[in-house]
Amino acid sequence: MENTELNKENIDYTSFSKAISERYLSYALSTITSRSLPDVRDGLKPVHRRVLYAMMQLKLNHNLGFKKSARVVGDVMGKFHPHGDAAIYDSMVRMAQEFALRYPLVDGQGNFGNIDGDNAAAMRYTEARMTKAAELLLSEIDKDTVDFRVTYDDEGQEPVVLPSAFPNLLANGSQGIAVGMATSIPPHNIHELIDALLHLIKFPNATNQTISNFVKGPDFPTGGVLVEPIESIQQAYRDGKGGFKLRAKWFVEKLKGGQWQIIVNEIPYQVQKSRLLEKIAELMENKSLPMLSDIRDESTENIRLVIEPKSRNFLPEMVMETLFKKTDLETRISLNLNVIDEKNVPGVKSLKDALKCWLDHRQIILQRKSKFRLSQIEKRINILNGYITVYLNLDKVIEIIREEEKPKEVLISFFSINEIQANAILDMRLRSLRKLEEIELKKELSDLESELNSLKGLLDNNNEQWKQIYADIKSLKKEFTDIGIRRTVIEDLPNVDDFDEDQFIVKEPITIILSHQGWVRSQKSHLSDEIELKYREGDKEKFKVHAFSTDKIIFFADNGRFFSVAANKLPSGRGFGEPISLTIDLKADVKIIACFPFFDGFLIVASEKGHGFKISTKNIMAQTKSGKQVINVKGDNKAKICKKIEGDTIAIVGNNRKLVVYSIDEVPELNKGKGVILQRYKDGTLSDITTFNEGEGISWQLNGGRQRIEKDLLTWQGKRGGSGRMVPNGFPRPPIFR
């Protein structure tokens, strides 16, 4: 009973939705501020900041030796970042990859992955140290320049933000997905950023457009060609949101005999080379790139993709435009300058605002550094004054120390010095007495007082602070002389005339084969009827159509839909082909009733119940895999006939063996619909239709293979919609024209 009452007292009742909302909000805020979004001041997420700080503690400077990556990861995980070692090492690996970061922050030794997408070696095999850029981020962190907070276990301290003497946010960019928001910042050129920062110091009210005149666009570690219009780039930087169209860099390499090949030597940022090659090879296999004969990778340390065209008559620009359209040789890099500001609040900033935030941070760092130095100087001046007192009264000081029980109190009282000075005198070693020369002490004191006045003047004068920051940023350019050259070229989008991809297809005869079970394939050359073709067990030939590789192949299904497929995109004649449902959206219970290469003319289409109409072939082309509905059929009624109109007369026969003949002009031309009654049935359905010239008569095949031609058609002559008369003697069963 007592336990029940105790439990009741400790229960806090709340609604489920409120409890979920509070917990989810807590999770969301943690993800946004402590994991996914970078800080606008140093451009780092917590895990990257902790990795660099741990490396600094391990004294992994760029000019000193390497240490095992596992040592760094262990320190980060044990001291600062209580998460999985894989996540920490992955972050560290990315900071070392020259193809991922424009200015790497980790100098890696060993296998740190490659542009093909291969993983880095395990952390026990690789070694690392910081780069110059990383050291700049951490410079003067020991001079009270930034705030520290306790680590997760309350046993140590970690920096809230780094001093960041390097504009890392925009120089290296950042990617992250939080809850309800994301960030995507591409890397930029450090020289351009420095020029923009210097201009912003001189002209704080400079417009966004002026700043974008200095920062011309992203500068990716993998190079490439930026083909985004200038107006679009400027708008993206002004809004903090937008995108950039990036293309691979390529050139034409001449070969013997007038042949040529395309060499791609730079691919877009964050595109894996192996995946890119797989995609192109897959498109070639699917005949989506008919202009290519081969693609191969001849890359060493430098990228070299060789693209061979099928014909030297093609224009290289048109070949590349097709590849840009269909592959990742052209990508779109998004810009979403969503960052955490100095108040720990996320928000989207313009390029100018992001630069201004960094400059403001540098001013705070300068002020804090100056105050820290000021404090040190004041302490040293205080001690120096005590030393001078010792020098002037050395014998008396020694006497007091030797004879007095409490020498500190006596020194303070006798020489009127403070406790700090007295402690400094008492802590002095005997060997230091020889250094106590008045001239040297006074010179050091003079220098410190001069520096003290200079620092006070700096702290009191805002203009002097900006002059100092200006000089520091200007000197930063020298640190990146070698790797500061722009890698991504900015060009206007090439003016390539509109072209038809079909021009790349070499015209050659092919045969399209469709089986009863719906398997389709194309084989080279026009196959004769004598050639025996293989089909799946229980399957047989339904259509064998002669066409050319440049044709559009038209399929007509019994649901009244037309489908159009480029002949070169049909599966090749290996094996039994593929189900046609992989090429067009065809339901399992729907059958193909006509297959032919596209021609410019007219068709007669009809349903089983005898309704139909004429249609121009210009109106049957389907733009999508789902086809185009032309003849409307409902219930058990299905499309039955689709034939080319060849002549001025139409003959229709039903399965009731009644035939009617009349002028084709009586059949209206429609674009789609149910159609009109072509032949009326009491008991029966449409069996077949043929068109012919009245003077030539109609023909059909008799048993034994003989052909019969009937020119006297007066008996069967009628009007559209008539029921007709019985077919002539010898007409085939079932009643079809052959």
Task: Indicate the percent of residues in helices.
Answer: 25-40%
- Spatial shape: elongated
Number of helices: 18
Strand adjacency order, main sheet: 14-9-8-17
The helix/strand class is alpha+beta
CATH class of one domain: Mainly Beta
Distance between the termini: 97 Å
CATH topology of one domain: Neuraminidase
CATH architecture of one domain: 6 Propeller
Q: Give the name of the CATH superfamily of one domain.
A: DNA gyrase/topoisomerase IV, subunit A, C-terminal
Total DSSP E strands = 35
Radius of gyration: 42 Å
The whole-number mean of residue pLDDT values reads 88
Residue stretches low in confidence (pLDDT < 50, at least 5 long) are none
For the biggest sheet, the summary is:
4 strands, mixed
Beta-strand share of residues: 15-25%
Structure, described:
The longest helix is centred in the middle third of the chain and has 42 residues, at 351-392. The relative contact order is 0.07. The radius of gyration is 42 Å and the shape is elongated. It contains 18 helices and 35 strands. Helices cover 33% and strands 22% of the residues. Among the domains are: 44-163, Topoisomerase II, domain 5 (Alpha-Beta Complex), CATH 3.90.199.10; 355-460, Orthogonal Bundle (Topoisomerase, domain 3); 507-593, no CATH class; 599-738, DNA gyrase/topoisomerase IV, subunit A, C-terminal (Neuraminidase, 6 Propeller). The strands form eleven sheets. The protein has a four-stranded mixed beta sheet with strand order 14-9-8-17. A four-stranded antiparallel beta sheet has the order 10-11-13-12, covered by helices on one side. The chain has a four-stranded antiparallel beta sheet with strand order 20-18-19-23, with no helix packed on it. It is α+β, with helices and mostly antiparallel strands.
